[in-house]
Amino acid sequence: MGKISTVAIISKPKIAKAAEIVCGLLDWLAERGIQTRFDEETARYAGQSTFYSREELPKGADMVIVLGGDGTLLSAARVVAGGDIPLLAVNLGHLGFLTSITLDQLYPELERALRGESRIGRRRMIDCELVRNGEVIGRYSALNDVVITKSLLARMIDLDTYVDNHFVAAYKLDGLIISTPTGSTAYSLSAGGPVIFPTVSAVCITPICPHMLTNRPVIV
């Protein structure tokens, strides 16, 4: 990690004592000559009227601090995807499997980052295109997974699944999870999928409540 001169901050809404946490962080960064950019929630906690949209927030930032839980981190990952900007995720939410840094560790970890001593772990993301009648009607990126699921009507769906144009299976099920290694500990795990080490170059196809007992998770 190179020199850090600008930090972007993304915050989870409705955090207890958030104003105290955010104001303390902004003061700490200002004392070290580090400029800050923040989203609307962070601005609200800090009593500021100037903020950036999530899309504009990472521009010019050397690091993004995420104050929240895993959901906030997943949202932040979509924002910085492809920007080669490290995320420092601080667990202030209910789920903290990915946001492993506690509030007590925030400033010691920031000190390490400023000294260039932090280790950066790279994570694979997944892109999804929704094509209907030959037309792409939606594009999405995810850190955890892409899920194809049934509508509100309580019946199974039929899915033909291919990998690189090679037929894998014709599923009859409630849904299908395509998971990254990071997402292997999320929805896929709850559906019976394996835990995949984060650096493994693979994705996992996990069926949700399949009709056939032989339909099991497949790593590709």
Characterise the protein shown here.
The chain has five helices and twelve strands. The mean pLDDT is 90. The strands form four sheets. It has a four-stranded parallel sheet, sandwiched between helices. It has a four-stranded antiparallel sheet with strand order 7-10-11-12, with no helix packed on it. Strands 5-6 form a two-stranded antiparallel sheet. It is elongated. Helix 1 crosses helix 2.
At a glance:
By secondary structure, the protein is an alpha/beta fold. The protein has helices spanning 18-31, 40-46, 70-80, 106-114, 187-190; strands at residues 6-11, 35-38, 63-68, 87-91, 126-132, 135-142, 145-149, 157-163, 166-173, 175-179, 204-208, 218-219. The strands form four sheets. A four-stranded parallel sheet has the order 2-1-3-4, with helices on both faces. The protein has a four-stranded antiparallel sheet with strand order 7-10-11-12, with no helix packed on it. A two-stranded antiparallel sheet has the order 5-6.
What attributes characterize this protein structure?
220 residues, alpha/beta, four-stranded parallel β-sheet, 20% helix, 31% strand
Note the main sheet.
4 strands, parallel
Low-confidence stretches: none
- The fraction of residues assigned to DSSP E strands is 25-35%
Q: How are the strands of the largest sheet arranged? A: 2-1-3-4
What is the residue-averaged pLDDT?
A: 90
Oligomer: single chain
The level of helicity is 10-25%
Structural class: alpha/beta
Overall 3D shape: elongated
Mind telling me the C-alpha Rg? 20 Å
Quote the distance from N terminus to C terminus: 32 Å
Secondary-structure element series: EHEHEHEHEEEEEEHEE
Query: How many helix segments?
Result: 5
Q: What's the β-strand tally?
A: 12
